[in-house]
């Protein structure tokens, strides 16, 4: 099938022979690299005038690259001159990104199609076969390299001088420790931070804007996210403190059953529960008024508000901690203490 | 001084000679150019991952010019009116600036995000290809392990990447990660405080993730990718069994020009697709989420797909805290630390597990068709089923809402499917593989259906079959005389022709769009059959 089979077979083609063609040299190079070009057939006869088919492919490839040029210039023009700055509403700026993407894609596709058509339609068909020379090194290599390594120990005389062995072990082992030690800078004592929030006795419950909350502010059946009324209390400095203040309707309030130890945590029909899910720490903030359930949208744990926010479905294992609340002399909600247990996700040292 | 006369036509040769005088590179360069690459579409999947990675480096470098990872609170004053005056971290504000106030910033961000998704998707599909064809077997176990390392590093890189804009969604993800670290026995709370530099969220995590995202993990990725490619060059590609393909050779195109032209073109196409995605399809619209606040969350909060399966496992895992002697192992620990640990350990060690299990210590350069190793294919599909159930469960709230299904029912369906799905998938896949093998053998025994009905002298109608193996029985008889042993011997675990056009019966299509540009070649079915029969012999 090859157009010049004789040269492929001759070992050691004389490279300076004047009759040797360029292709012969390529084959010889490949042969020396363990590659046999088993099948090689130009798609068009380069000695005869271009056929219609060949001209058509030539035009197609040229068109691809010309299209790339046009699209790339288009990209630059759009980038430089198109209205790009964001304006509210529907404006020309909304087309900036799609136009850039289109121009970039057309430019790249032009190169891509051009190259691939070139390869598939113009360049010679070829099947090349390469030897693998797989597997391990030769036995000789293994023996010689093995001896070279083994000789290291002999040259160093480790066996003869055991003191050195011990000295190296004792001397160098701490270097590893020295390398790791700086990571110790990362260590921070958790202290009691996982057990406390921003709430303490007498701290007001405030909204995100810092304003304190009165009982009248929340309609029956309503909820409000509240924060400790301390400096920075509404910021991420106190990401463990967001609390859900729920005003139950009278009918629902009558149905509430909570363990005796939480009996005086609520204020009338107002209940405050930690907003931080006891499972993975997302805010469990989707409140379903009809079924009195709180849902955490991250992993779908569900908490029964009428049963002390005990989990009723999903992967959460513990009830949302309840914040003991009351109202101060000016009629604003306050916490009567911090939460009685760690809020949020569990951890090793947390007992039950 | 006289200037040497420069002849442009001689410049390449002179330049090459100059370099070779100093580097003696002529031999190695030619050897590289002559390296043979086999040709199959499934070998391009890993390339997609590589090209996406290059796009990630290019767009990522652009983004670093404008991104500021500081968690200092600032008041936003940019072009996006709905958030003007809102307090947010500098990281989030600069991410908004990249989206609205940097020329071309939005498309770079979106191409970067799409490229990350494509990178991970291509790695996964490439890995499945390698698994189902047995390409991981000796001598390529090391490259399989490096590949698993790339998958893990890609996951970490992607997570760090979508966490640093510090929007409400990424902050929620970080909070879950905080809970996951807290759940680790003994050291959890200390580890979480070390990672976050104090109690969540602190001010350290975004700058730390940023340096991991732009320096540490990309460094590891580049090193692993280099090792992956170096081993590939050293060990050469696997190839499908077929005509002239043996364990000792590689049949295909030389790298230059054939493979280089195709690979270069393919890179451009992958990049073009990412440009279209980045230009037209919104991804991670952080301005809709707002800045991260500890009390804020939205329904339908999902991570990117390569983390989504872990979200799914966390949703499905039952509420099982273990508490004893005043210590707790939280429920979160099992689906988020133990499960991925087990999954990646088994995946990483798979080449060794399989070799030990079936006692196969041989060198393999020829691939296996999935149908020919039914148990491995079935195991792979079972594993894919397991991961898919987890991934779907990671979005089960969306499904519940869109299809009006109870959320709790979705969770239970996921739990049941997670346990029942993989065995069922194993059984079905095993049967399908055997069935496909059976069909191959049937065609070998009876030949290919030609659609030609012949009436015999005594009135019987038969369909003419084109025999696939030569020399056995007459044409039309379809090799009915072949014995079971002969068929078994002729089944070479390579594709069997099943349609007459594989024998050239249809003839080549006429080329040209509006009018023909050439005379079509005459079909030559008889010679084609002869060639095909040779294949079988050569295989042996």
Please give a structural write-up.
With 352 residues, chain A is an alpha+beta fold. Chain A contains seven helices and twelve strands. In chain A, the strands form four sheets. Chain A has a four-stranded antiparallel beta sheet with strand order 3-4-5-6, with no helix packed on it. In chain A, helix 3 runs antiparallel to helix 4 (96-122). Residues 1-10 of chain A have low confidence and may be disordered. Chain B is mainly α and 540 residues long. Chain B is built from 18 helices and eight strands. Chain B has helices spanning 11-23, 26-33, 45-64, 90-100, 105-132, 141-163, 168-182, 188-196, 205-235, 255-280, 286-289, 305-316, 333-358, 374-393, 396-402, 407-446, 484-490, 525-539, and strands at 36-37, 73-75, 87-89, 249-254, 322-324, 327-329, 448-455, 461-466. In chain B, strands 1-4 form a two-stranded antiparallel ribbon. In chain B, a hairpin with a 2-residue loop joins strand 5 (322-324) and strand 6. In chain B, helix 4 packs across helix 5 (105-132) and helix 6 packs antiparallel against helix 13 (333-358). Chain B is globular, with a radius of gyration of 29 Å. The interface between A and B is large, with 95 and 110 residues.
Write a concise keyword list for the protein shown above.
heterodimer; A: 352 residues; alpha+beta; four-stranded antiparallel sheet; 7 helices; 12 strands; flat; B: 540 residues; mainly alpha; two-stranded antiparallel sheet; two-stranded antiparallel ribbon; 6% strand; globular
Annotation, overall tally of beta strands of chain A: 12
Gyration radius from CA atoms of chain B, angstroms = 29 Å
Q: Helix amount of chain B, in percent? A: 55-70%
Q: What is the terminal-to-terminal distance of chain A?
A: 80 Å
Summarize the structure.
The complex is a heterodimer of chains A (352) and B (540). With 352 residues, chain A is α+β, with helices and mostly antiparallel strands. In chain A, 33% of the residues lie in helices and 14% in strands.
């Amino acid at each position: 099938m090859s157009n010049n089979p004789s040269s492929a077979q001759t070992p050691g083609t004389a490279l300076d022979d004047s009759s040797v063609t360029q292709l012969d040299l390529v084959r010889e190079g490949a042969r020396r690299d363990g590659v046999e070009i088993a099948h090689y057939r130009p798609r068009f006869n380069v000695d005869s005038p271009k056929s219609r088919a060949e001209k058509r492919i030539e035009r197609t490839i040229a068109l691809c690259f010309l299209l790339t040029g046009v699209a790339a210039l288009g990209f630059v023009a759009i980038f430089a001159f198109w209205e790009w700055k964001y304006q509210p509403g529907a404006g020309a700026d909304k087309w900036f990104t799609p136009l850039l993407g289109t121009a970039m894609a057309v430019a790249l596709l032009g190169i891509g199609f051009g190259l691939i058509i070139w390869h598939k339609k113009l360049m010679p068909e070829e099947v090349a076969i390469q030897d693998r020379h797989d597997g391990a090194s030769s036995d000789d290599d293994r023996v010689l390299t093995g001896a070279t390594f083994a000789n290291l120990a002999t040259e160093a005389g480790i066996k003869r001088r055991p003191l050195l062995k011990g000295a190296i072990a004792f001397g160098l082992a701490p270097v590893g420790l020295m390398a790791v030690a700086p990571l110790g800078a990362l260590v921070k004592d958790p202290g009691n931070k996982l057990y406390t929030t921003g709430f303490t006795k007498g701290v007001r419950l405030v909204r995100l804007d810092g304003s304190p909350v009165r009982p009248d502010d929340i309609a029956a059946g309503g909820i409000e996210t509240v924060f400790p009324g301390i400096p920075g209390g509404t910021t991420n400095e106190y990401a463990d403190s967001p609390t859900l203040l729920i005003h139950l309707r009278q009918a629902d309030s009558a149905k509430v059953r909570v363990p005796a130890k939480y009996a005086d945590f609520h204020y009338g029909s107002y209940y405050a529960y930690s907003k931080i899910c006891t499972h993975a720490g997302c805010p469990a903030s989707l409140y379903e008024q009809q079924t009195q359930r709180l849902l955490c949208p991250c992993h779908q744990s569900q908490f029964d508000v009428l049963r002390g926010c005990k989990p009723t479905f999903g992967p959460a294992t513990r009830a949302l901690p309840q914040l003991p609340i009351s109202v101060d002399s000016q009629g604003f909600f306050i916490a009567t203490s911090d939460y009685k247990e760690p809020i949020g996700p569990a951890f090793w040292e947390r007992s039950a | 001084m006289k200037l040497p006369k420069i002849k442009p036509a001689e410049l390449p040769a002179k330049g090459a000679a100059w370099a070779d005088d100093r580097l003696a590179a002529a031999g190695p360069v030619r050897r590289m150019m002559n390296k043979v690459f086999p040709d199959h579409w499934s070998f391009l999947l890993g390339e997609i991952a590589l090209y996406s990675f290059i796009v990630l480096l290019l767009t990522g470098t652009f983004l670093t010019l404008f991104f500021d990872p500081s968690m200092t609170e600032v008041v936003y004053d940019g072009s996006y009116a709905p958030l003007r005056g809102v307090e947010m971290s500098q990281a989030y504000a600069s991410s908004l600036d990249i989206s609205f106030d940097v020329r071309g910033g939005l498309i770079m961000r979106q191409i970067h995000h799409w490229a990350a998704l494509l990178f991970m998707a291509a790695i996964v599909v490439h890995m499945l290809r390698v698994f189902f064809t047995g390409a991981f077997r000796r001598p390529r176990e090391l490259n399989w392990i490096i590949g698993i390392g790339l998958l893990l590093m890609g996951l970490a890189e992607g997570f760090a990447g979508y966490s640093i804009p510090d929007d409400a969604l990424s902050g929620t993800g970080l909070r879950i990660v905080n809970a996951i670290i807290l759940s680790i026995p003994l050291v959890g709370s200390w580890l979480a405080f070390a990672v976050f530099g104090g109690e969540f969220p602190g001010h350290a995590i975004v700058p730390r993730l940023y340096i991991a995202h732009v320096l540490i993990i990309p460094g590891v990725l580049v090193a692993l990718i280099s090792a992956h490619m170096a081993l590939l060059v050293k060990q050469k590609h696997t190839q499908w069994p077929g005509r002239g393909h043996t364990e000792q050779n590689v049949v295909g195109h030389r790298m230059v020009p054939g493979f280089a032209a195709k690979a270069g073109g393919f890179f451009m196409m992958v990049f073009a697709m990412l440009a279209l995605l980045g230009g037209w399809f919104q991804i991670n619209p952080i301005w809709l989420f707002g800045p991260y606040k500890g009390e804020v969350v939205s329904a339908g909060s999902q991570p990117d797909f390569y983390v989504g399966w872990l979200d799914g496992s966390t949703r499905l895992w039952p509420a099982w805290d273990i508490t004893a002697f005043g210590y707790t192992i939280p429920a979160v620990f099992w689906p988020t630390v133990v499960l991925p640990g087990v999954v990646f350990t088994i995946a990483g060690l798979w080449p060794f597990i399989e070799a030990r299990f079936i006692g196969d210590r041989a060198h393999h350069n020829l691939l296996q068709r999935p149908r020919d190793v039914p148990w491995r294919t079935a195991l792979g599909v079972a594993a894919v089923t397991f991961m898919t159930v987890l991934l779907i469960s990671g979005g089960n709230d969306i499904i519940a809402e869109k299809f009006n299904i109870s959320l709790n029912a979705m969770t239970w369906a996921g739990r049941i499917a997670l346990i029942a799905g993989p065995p069922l998938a194993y059984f079905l896949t095993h049967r399908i593989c055997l069935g496909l093998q059976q069909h191959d053998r049937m065609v070998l025994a009876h030949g290919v259906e030609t659609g030609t009905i012949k009436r015999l002298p005594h009135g019987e109608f038969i369909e003419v079959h084109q025999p696939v193996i030569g020399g056995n029985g007459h044409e039309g008889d379809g090799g009915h005389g072949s014995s079971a042993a002969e068929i078994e011997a002729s089944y070479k675990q390579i594709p069997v022709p099943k349609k007459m056009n594989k024998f050239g019966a249809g003839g080549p299509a006429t080329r040209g769009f509006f009018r023909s540009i050439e005379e079509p070649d005459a079909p030559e079915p008889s010679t084609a059959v002869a060639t095909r029969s040779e294949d079988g012999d050569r295989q042996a």
